[in-house]
Please model this.
Amino acid sequence: MYRFLSAHRHEYSGTIVKVGSKLQKSWKVGQNVAVEPDFGCGACNQCSPEGRNTCAKMGFIGLSGPSGGLGQYSAVGGENIHLLPDNIPLDIGALVEPLAVAWHAVRISGLKPGQSALVMGAGPIGASTIRSLRALGAKTVICAEPSKARQAIARASGAEHILNPITDDVVARCFELTGGEGVDVALDAAGLASGITLNTAIKATKAGGTITNIAIHNDLVPIDLVSLYMRERSLNGIIGYTPQDFREVIEALAAGKMQGDDMITGRIRLDDLVEGGFHELLNNKDSHVKIMVRHE
Model:
């Protein structure tokens, strides 16, 4: 059971206040942890310790499972927590989950140190993706984002080149910025239903490059297969993260390779959740990355 600081129902960290009898050799009261909220069926071939994110019955604590980050306490298994070092406070610990999504996407993209990347969108996951790209050695990071507020977030996250997809030819500019080759990897964190962001990412990638879709779609999306296969580009998708991603994000934060403080654009108490949290995000979404909700 935990007392926690929450950025979302499934994005949270906390302090252990009680340990079950089977976990008392591994954990103790008073330790600060980040919660990895995904779970699987526990019986299929995908449900290995490092692969439950691909289970057909995968879900998330706080979304499709038990009470998550907005409850007074949260009971989770030992496989769902990661110890936070002393130099990572609870508010930063609550960012590990969204950062792990982005870290996983960059890792799956196959990015190598010194390569170039395009990120479509600079919302919370887009900003996290830019930071992960930098921490994992990307040399040139380009971001396509129309919102001025989010453009500033992208720049603060480490994007060297900010493009406005409304006024800029994103594909042409990506080729210009990479010596006519196109970017090595492109990641779509915007996911417009029309498919324009995914198809822009495909066209902006070099021959043999990789496009990774991060965004969640409710409906089928049209894909420009001609642009994909004519230059032997590869398209993949990711869902969630693995324990490896949580561990590596925590290590990167602890070592100062990635910053999280400026991603926190608001801090509220639980009793201000509706007005200061939900309404604020609905009315001023572009001005925020993460609003933290603290339980006292």
